[in-house]
Every structure is written in C-alpha cells, then in structure tokens.
Design brief:
126 residues, alpha+beta, 4 strands
Length: 126
C-alpha cells in the first residue's frame, strides 16, 4: 500500500477486504497494475526476445539467451521466460520498494480496467 501512495497514481492495487464480522479480518492485496513505460518496455523486450526465431538477427538488442534455443522445447522456453520475468520483477520491486515475500505468479502487459484504459504492467500473486 505504501508503494501505491508513493507512486502518485502510477500504481493501482487489486485485492479484497474481510470485515470485522469474521475472525480472519484482513485487507489482502493480490495484484498490482503499474503505469510505467520503462517497465512495460522491459516486459515487451522479454516477450519479443523469446518470440524472435530469426537466426540472422544482427540487432544490438538481440536476446543472447535465446541464441541457441530450440523453439520446440517448451521447458527451455519456460525457463527463459521465467528468467526474463524475474529480471523485470526485480526492477519493479526495487523501483517501487515492494517487500513481497515471493515473485508474482503472473506478470504481463494489461490494459487498466482489463479491456480499456492505458496499457501497463500487471503483477498478480495466487
């Protein structure tokens, strides 16, 4: 919640509250939506790098981790995605001083309000 307050409207929280009528009263934040073009660019770079199967890529932004990958090896692709998303998550956690005890289960580009609104970075914990 502190990240949301400090971010001047760029961080939106998603979750639920359980009121005092139950023994397990709480406020639970299970998702964040972040309006940060740098983070969105980093996320797209991870996605684009893994989708690029061009063998003759001389672009300086070429994803070195994808250089020798087998495009049909699902486990290898999953590991590379996890590595790239972990880097994006570390950037998010540092930039917004987040203290989550685990990496998010989902990290992807998403429009605010899920169908319209500006594009941002969505993080969700199960």
């Amino acid at each position: 919640m502190r990240a949301c307050i400090r971010a001047d409207g760029r961080v939106r929280l998603s979750g639920y509250g359980i009121g005092p009528q139950r023994k397990d009263e709480r406020v639970s934040v299970e998702g964040l939506w972040i309006a940060d073009p740098d983070l969105l660019d980093a996320l797209f770079e991870v996605i684009d790098g893994l989708d690029d199967d061009d063998e003759d890529n001389d672009d300086e932004d070429y994803c070195w981790a994808c250089e020798d990958r087998d495009p049909y090896d699902a486990e290898e692709l999953e590991a590379l995605v996890a590595l790239g998303l972990r880097e994006v998550w570390c950037c998010v956690a540092e930039r917004y001083q987040l203290d989550a005890h685990a990496d998010p289960d989902e990290l992807k580009p998403l429009h605010r309000h899920w169908t319209h609104g500006p594009l941002g970075t969505w993080l969700w914990w199960d």
